[in-house]
Design a protein that fits this description.
alpha/beta, nine-stranded mixed β-sheet, 12 helices, 9 strands, about 15% strand
């Protein structure tokens, strides 16, 4: 294979983790890659580390820009990416040394537009080593189809790796008319579903090729702010998108995720003494107007169908009086 793959890495103040990330990328077994480092206005040593790697590896390109957030950095990298395929890596994570080789070979072998690899969560990278992968393991890659779409266990278990931007390889053309939304902290929830929907074929490999660092200072673990309503906003957009296309099973899947996120926001706001009514009322009103589109089907079942209506017409109505 002589196919160029672009790897875009948005970077902001991750000096203590960045070399682990970049080492994993420059040491890929597949060599025909361009590595685009977008320094998003870092104020620590991150920018200097980027320049160091560019000096000894001519595949590395560095963009230094004013801080604009993760979406802005990703979009900036995509603008100059020349590869037929593209992948995203977050700068505090790292990837298996065969990440590109394996996902690209699966993409070519299955004529797929997106290949999704699994991930492993870690705290200390010293305890997280590359696993040797055999041909047998790689052959377990499966084309996502209606069977998985109607498998609730699969959807619930794999929802993270199917939603996040990282851990995948995409045909670059899928992003021709899609960018990540500026100022949204759940930018992948706003975006990945549209990229997936454009793909003719998506393949999933249940082997961890991406290593996701769990940080105690991450946005999701810190103090709740109204910016975190971005996830609920994204799921509301998804509901409207799939409902307009009359994709009933997708509407059902999104509805379940919507309620999970709604109560996550409610619980976090209650924990911190934040008045939830003003922030959550528009979302409640939206679901009041759209719950009729969640139909009683084999997938939803009578229990969930009744539960959703109980929440909308009884429980939440009392909250928002």
């Amino acid at each position: 294979m002589d196919i160029l793959v672009s790897i875009v890495i948005p970077i902001y103040n991750v000096g203590q983790y960045l070399k682990t990330c970049l080492d994993s990328v420059v040491r890929q077994s597949y060599g025909n890659i361009e590595i685009i480092l977008v320094d998003d206005g870092s104020t620590d040593e991150s920018g200097g580390i980027c320049d160091e790697y560019a000096e000894f590896d001519n595949r590395v390109q560095v963009i230094h820009k004013a801080n604009g957030g993760l979406s802005s950095a990703r979009n900036c990298g995509m603008e100059i990416a020349k590869g037929a395929y593209i992948a995203f890596v977050d700068s505090d994570d790292f990837i298996h040394n065969r990440f590109v080789e394996i996902l690209l070979s699966i993409a070519i072998g299955n004529d797929s537009d997106i290949v999704v690899g699994d991930f492993e969560v870690f705290i200390n990278e010293d305890k997280c080593k590359d696993k040797e992968l055999t041909g047998w393991q790689i052959e377990q890659a499966q084309v996502l189809n209606e069977k998985q779409l109607y498998d609730n266990d699969f959807i619930h278990k794999e929802t993270t790796c199917l939603t996040v931007a990282w851990g995948k390889i995409y045909k670059r053309e899928l992003f021709n008319d899609i960018i990540y939304p500026i100022g949204k902290i759940n930018e992948d929830t706003h975006t990945t579903y549209r990229v997936m929907d454009k793909a003719n074929r998506v393949v999933y490999l249940k082997e961890p090729l991406y290593f996701w660092r769990e940080r105690t200072d991450s946005i999701s673990r810190g103090k709740f702010t109204t910016k975190q309503l971005s996830g609920l906003e994204a799921l509301t957009e998804q509901f409207s998108y799939f409902n307009a296309l009359k994709r009933q099973r997708y509407v059902e899947i999104v509805t379940d995720a919507w309620w999970d996120w709604f109560f996550y926001c409610y619980n976090r706001m209650n924990e911190q003494g934040i008045d939830y009514k003003e922030a959550l009322k528009p979302f409640y009103k939206y679901m009041c107007n759209h719950i009729k589109y969640v139909k009683l089907t084999k997938s939803v079942g009578l229990t969930n169908w009744l539960r959703y209506r109980y929440l909308v017409y009884y429980k939440l109505r009392k909250w928002f009086k």
